[in-house]
Each structure stands twice: as structure tokens, then as C-alpha cells.
């Protein structure tokens, strides 16, 4: 557990650091977006100013009092222009210039004159700017006129002609100015990244938008030269906050997945280390078990061989008994060494099988015939039931024999009291089945999954109570897997175990 904590703590610390960095990055991103929006709004106002100066520059290229027709020709490109009213402040001279005759009426002239007197303080200020600093300022208004059912915006500016000072009122369509002068700029700046709109402030009526759909809030401010209108801007697909939150969520998901992968990786490393430690322990137990298993028969062989060599046994029956014990222990050593060699070949992927068509019932019969003496000498009752028809499979006879011997030996080891063993062959669907049943100790359910692991032995108290190295069932599993077969176990603690080996039947000729 301590190892897991040592591995996980750096991952958690990294995650916290990344979350903090992400928060800082998102704040900086928000600031950058805000500055971008302010820059766009400033640029729009600057364009409006430039277009207005362009118009007044065109207007002032000639004397509109002496050459009105030439001035009107120059102003023909400005579709938003309605009329220009000029009044001498210290005299009686006044001029009304318009491309359409319906603006050149006494009624409209009177309305223009009334505007001058209604805004006298503003007029005086514009004249003072002109006289003191030769600065010609254009004054816009939030109010408007209605003439010929049209909304008419107006601007004041002062001018000089010789010693005379004039106050001028420029009447125009603000909507027309926006459409002709600002819409191209809106389109140029939007370019799929922003949505730019222009609305009338008084009622929120939209004059223009670069997109038909506006999602969420919009940053807006009035136009300097057109105070009745405001320009709004938003990011395509949502507000800055929405964009930042969306990116933040994406980064959080990516970071979460990264953290999950790292934690899973740490867990896998921990699990592998734990398995390696368990495997090392099993290997240590294996060495201990094998040493114990080898030492016992060697001690017996040495003792009885020495006794016979010194001719201390005179009775022939006793000699025969000692010879049988030596033969039995040699057989045990041989079986143990064969299993270790077989397991070594399997682990190195060097185990080769010479598969041929054979009858599993015949193999079982041969094994039981050979092994019956061993079973009986150890006090086991055994039965054999064979399927009435041949059960042919493609298999290595030696390997299948090894499987049977391991299962029978396993049943003998774990049947200390009820020494009964049953072996039979059956047919299940397209498989030949070999069943080995004992009435021994049985296996608990929580041990079944580990049963075929190398070096694993079902715990039964003292590890040396039951002889073995923990390789037999592992070898069985490898052999059956290499023959494309399956193993089934039916076991209850105290009631014995049944191992079923299923091998695919060979195809008929």
C-alpha cells in the first residue's frame, strides 16, 4: 500500500499543478479576448471617423455657395447625403444645398434655421474652436428629424469664408451611412471569427449583422459620430465566457483522461510489482518444496541402498521390500524431474507436439493399466468407464498421457482419507471428454481461478503436508490450451473434485 501511495502522490500533485496552470491560462485568455474586442470596436469607430472626414474633405474641395452643382456632383457617390444648410452668424446670408428638390422648400429651410437657434450654446462653442485654434469640430446629436417620412440625422460644423463665419448643418441618413461606409468594414473584420452587429439604441432595432444568429451576450458601445447607434461584437459560436468555459472544459476532460491513464498506469505498475513479488515468493516456495521433495526420496534411497550394500538384510522378503521402496522413490524423482523439464520447455515455448489421430479411451485405458499398481499400492479404489465408441482426436499421445498422470497424481495427493478415484470418457457435443473424479479435500470457489497458475498450491495448512511443486496443473493447462481444448472443474470443499478435459473431436475422413 505504501508503494502505491508513493507512486500516486506525484500524479495527484501533477494534476493539482496542471489545474492551477489551467486556471491562470484561462484568465489570460479571457483578457486577450477582451482586448481583441476592444480593438475591433475601436477600429469600427475609427473607420466611421475616416469615412466622415472623407465626406467633409470632398465637401470642402470647392465653394458650395458659388459652385453648388459641382459640389453636388462630387457628393453623388454618398447615397446617405440629404442636404446641407449654411447660415452666416453675423449676417443674413444662408444657403440650402440638396440633390433632391423636395428638400429645397421654405418649410425645411425654416426647420434648419430653428435648429441653429435651438442649439446656440453648441454653435458658439464650435465657433470658438474655429476662431481660437482653427479647429473644425463636427458635433453629432442623439436627436433626429422626420422629413418626408424619413429619419434624418444631422451634424453641426463651423466654417469660414473670408471674414465671414458660417454654421453648417449636414443632414444625412445614419442608416445609409452605416450601410455604405461601415458594412464593408464589418464584413472584413468578422471573417467567420466574430459576429458584428449595429443596432438603434432607443429600441434595439438591428440595422445590420454579419451573422443571422447571435448566441449569448454581446459587447457593445455607441458610435462616436452616430450616438443614436451602437456597434456590438461577439465571438462566432458564443460569448468570450462561453468560449473560455468550453475550452476550459475540454482541457479539464483531457487532463482528467490523462490523470486517469496515469493512475491506471501507476496501478498496473503496482499490480505488476505485486505479481512479481508474489511470483518471487512462489519461486522461493517452489525451490523449498522441490528441495524438500528431493531430499526425502534421496535420503530413503541412500539409507536402504547402504543397508543392502552392507549386507545387513538377510531375509529375501525384506530385501525385496527395500528394492521396491528404492524403485518407488526413484520413480518419484523421475516424475518430478520430468515435470520440471516439461514446464521449462513450455515456459521457453520449446515444447513441440507430434499430433496424430488417436482414441482418448484407448489412451485412458493404457494409463490406468500402467498406473493401477501404483493406485492400489497406495490404498486407492479406482474405477474406469469408457465411452462405447471410439473418441478420436488430433493430439500428442505423450502429452495427453502426461495430462492424465498429473490429474491422477493430483487426486491421490489431495485424498488423504476417502481414497477413491474414478476415470471415464464421454462425448459432449463436438468434444471428447476425459473426467477424473476424486473424493478428496475439494477446492474452495475463491481458489479455482488461481488453480492453474505456476507454482500455486491450494493452501492446506503446512506447505509440506502435501507433496508437490505446484507445476502439475499449470502443465495440464498449457497442454490442453495448445490442443485447443478446455478444462472444467466441479469441486466442493470436503466432497472432492472432478476435472473434465474437453478435446475437439477429429474430423471424419
From TrEMBL:
Reactions it catalyzes: ATP + protein L-histidine = ADP + protein N-phospho-L-histidine
Enzyme class, first EC level, given as a word: transferase
InterPro entries for this protein: BphY/WalK/GraS-like (IPR050351), HATPase_C_sf (IPR036890), HATPase_dom (IPR003594), His_kinase_dom (IPR005467), HisK_dim/P_dom (IPR003661), HisK_dim/P_sf (IPR036097), Sig_transdc_His_kin-like_C (IPR004358)
Entry keyword Aminoacyl-tRNA synthetase: no
CDD domains reported in the protein's UniProt record: HATPase, HisKA
Domain of life, source organism: Bacteria
Protein name: histidine kinase
Key words of the record: Kinase, Membrane, Phosphoprotein, Transferase, Transmembrane, Transmembrane helix, Two-component regulatory system
Pfam families tied to this protein: HATPase_c (PF02518), HisKA (PF00512)
Record EC number: 2.7.13.3
Residue ranges of every copy of the Histidine kinase domain listed in the record: 289-507
Transmembrane segments: 252-270
